[in-house]
């Protein structure tokens, strides 16, 4: 993906943004790249983009640091720190229009401004780069004692109708008929391989204080420019057009945990140790921290099965972890974890292990939303033998026609033959002669991904990578077989050299630009 950054409400002087990525095993931050330096503006809109490999199944932590440069030194410690922002690549990609806005932090007691990060998936281009040259004719006079000092700013349109800066020319001093130097630009940066994508070009008169005067603008496309390379374009013509493209669907996640064993005993997989997460908690956090980035409201229904509930000891295979059956939703993965720990103190764990009520619970929701606007992911964490195998197979066959996927994580040392059978990689699940329309189940035994040196962070990263790997293809297979295409996004904010917030270039196996 390609990522693009923009900032607002910053002190005037020279700004640069530094992108850091974090290693999975050692958690160290490493500098990935720096933007160009922009002078004399409160709202820098950086041209330089970062191209980042994007993996849906991994938690890819990012950090953006902003500095005010006091010299030409590359040593950041010699410059003024203005603030920073933390996020994941999935958080950016999963935001509406792949556009994320966050406040800058890092200086106690001070509002540091805002960062906007936009991501776009990069496509393959037959043409790698193009050489362009522009000139102006009879531009407006903007300087009181002279003519104008014009420069061009190029923007490519995004899928949500907004524009992302992709190039700036040099300033040509004191002329109304400028001829800018020829420049070479990658076609991916100019239009991302879409030759008909709208390209907006704005003309400004440069001012030393950063308050550049707007002269005019025009719209074109790569195809149009390639046809008319020798023609002049009238910059007085205001023919800007806006495009509307695809929006991201909402991913809905439902958590279900099986509750066998006494959590007060160290032998229990639910044992609440003060020193480390138990296997259930590690599985919840490993998958939840990644998948929550793609849920629009971050509210997750979290339920348990296989327990006796207070006050009468009724056995339940579908109860709310937060104790509220009317509203089982938890805020973010932290809310899910809190509800899980609280439930261990209030319920008495009890078998057997029934999967079909769990699957049918989510299927009822998925049945009511089949227009492609939502896709449901059910995470089941269990350590036991499935005691309703025939009913579970029937539920999976029925659910395969709905917008949902099922992730099963097996914890403990038991044999998971039934769960392996439900994973339809080798043979589709069938029930009473009917085969599942598509493979929607991914089963993973947690023990196969535990780090032998006891690095729980690495164990969780390995589990999440394996367990989430099939979700994108399952999601696309449902949408494509039903002819569902992404719907339109609402119009997004479009930054200008004098506007108020700021953005950095786009994040993009899938390459994304930030």
From TrEMBL:
GO BP, one annotated term: cellular response to calcium ion
Keyword Repeat: yes
Keywords: Calcium, Metal-binding, Repeat
Record-annotated C2 domain positions: 99-236
Pfam families in the record: C2, Copine
PROSITE patterns to which the protein is assigned, alphabetical: C2 (PS50004)
Single Gene Ontology MF annotation: metal ion binding
Any one Gene Ontology cellular component term annotated for this protein: plasma membrane
Protein family membership: Belongs to the copine family.
Protein name: C2 domain-containing protein
